[in-house]
Amino acid sequence: xxxxxxxxxxxxxxxxxxxxxxxxxxxxxxxxxxxxxxxxxxxxxxxxxxxxxxxxxxxxxxxxxxxxxxxxxxxxxxxxxxxxxxxxxxxxxxxxxxxxxxxxxxxxxxxxxxxxxxxxxxxxxxxxxxxxxxxxxxxxxxxxxxxxxxxxxxxxxxxxxxxxxxxxxxxxxxxxxxxxxxxxxxxxxxxxxxxxxxxxxxxxxxxxxxxxxxxxxxxxxxxxxxxxxxxxxxxxxxxxxxxxxxxxxxxxxxxxxxxxxxxxxxxxxxxxxxxxxxxxxxxxxxxxxxxxxxxxxxxxxxxxxxxxxxxxxxxxxxxxxxxxxxxxxxxxxxxxxxxxxxxxxxxxxxxxxxxxxxxxxxxxxxxxxx
Length: 370
Prior knowledge:
The chain is mainly alpha-helical. The protein has helices at residues 3-13, 15-30, 43-61, 64-75, 79-97, 99-116, 123-137, 146-154, 159-182, 201-218, 230-237, 239-243, 247-263, 267-279, 281-292, 294-301, 308-317, 327-339, 344-369. The protein is built from 19 helices and no strands.
């Protein structure tokens, strides 16, 4: 295999990483690297991503998701009910373990369900709906999304007020997701693989303990760095799992941390956002998410306005839209690219259409109803 082929293959499979890296490098010419750069990185998120990815890889290797997929097919016997179940699971999980972790956990399950039923033509739609559900699922609670937790603490919002602000946008989002699930064709599905898989229970128990610990870590009940202890355990039990982790995704996050961190320190960008917020907080927040993602937008814009209710809604529904509007969207794109590399364009078109559809409808509803 030639070097030229390897380079070409790397570029083809890591377009988002390369774009993020280029953006980060360009931004460094505007903000000279200094000690403040270290503050850009959300090490808690990086450790959570790494630890959860390692555990998920280990669970894949003992065929856990394949076995669970067969159970789901046995319980939900049509494409509509099975895909709806996957979307609901992802939605609920995002409220408990955040959108990034929900996707890392349940996108593989979506793949195995559709692959086992030979319904892979639904994969782009399923992954897109799981992504939208993950991005919108955590709206209702302060800990559901990172931007929620930041704004909740920054403005000292009372729990009852937070709920009052987000209840209507949440209901709007649930209604739209339900419509998108209802329109799925109800085709009968059965597992086509005859081989009965047997779960390695001792390993499964250990992996689930590690998985549970990572969830505790996501809730910040233990120091984030303790999540690194997952690595030596998996190294002893299944070192191949470490090789299957998507390290390019972690590097993509690092590149975006540098890019968005530098943007916030450029005076012209600062002045630009101040003028926009004087015009309309919600639309500014939504548009900002499309360019620098929702979490950095919350951090950047919170210093320029006291209208936290509009900003809170904006950085939640703003998670829909472009691939970089939410880091969770990058996770979905990378995962889909690994499973269906020849259908990346199809995914981007469908994902863009549905995401912008949700974004436009939710933005209009929130502007005129709230």
